[in-house]
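Duplicate of earlier report; SGNH hydrolase-type esterase domain-containing protein input re-posted below.
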Amino acid sequence: MKRVSKFGIYATVATAAAVVGLGTQHGHAGATGPEAAQDRPTLAVVGASISDGVGAGSPQKGWPVLLAHQLGWRSTVSADPGAGYVNPGRHKLGPMERLLGKLQLASEHPTVVIVQAGYNDINTPPAELTANVHKVIDQIRTQAPDAAVGVLTVFPKGQPSPAAWATDKIIVEAAKAAYPKVYVFDPLTSHWVFPTVADRLHPTAAGHQWIANRIASDFRHYGLTH
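Output:
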């Protein structure tokens, strides 16, 4: 895999790699053949460390790429560890609204857009968090009106705190208020359990595969794979 900088954009199609620009995005085509890069459904993900592949060893081993590969889709990801709907992230490339702008949804025409955020917004003022969730959902709906929209909410860290549960509830309610058809992937209320690294938060490589498998199952349940 060729990489242009510490925070470069990189794309893979089958086993070939090509530099496509600067930023925090990476793309992946999960299918082979001449039409692999264009004529496949696209999964667009904006998120924090878990979407950036932290714990797996590299973004290419993160759940978004694994999920797209499993479905035979392309993937495009914009993520910054520590980012949230309000928190700008470790490299100050967030929050989600700003990271979302790097995905160029209007030209990518994604089939599904997922926002993975919440843990880094724990203890954020509820009104500010609600407003920012609305902004992100509205931006997706404006730039990709034909895409299905999902939110992947707060991940557990050991036994979730009351503040984590409260943050999760705010995000889900705000997302549904902004767009009633939003799909919710909720690790807390669904009691997700997967292998993690020592911090008890970030998935191992096997944990990322578990998440990809779980969301793929949810996609099939919701009819998003058709």
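The first strand starts at residue 8 and ends at 13.

Merging into the original ticket.
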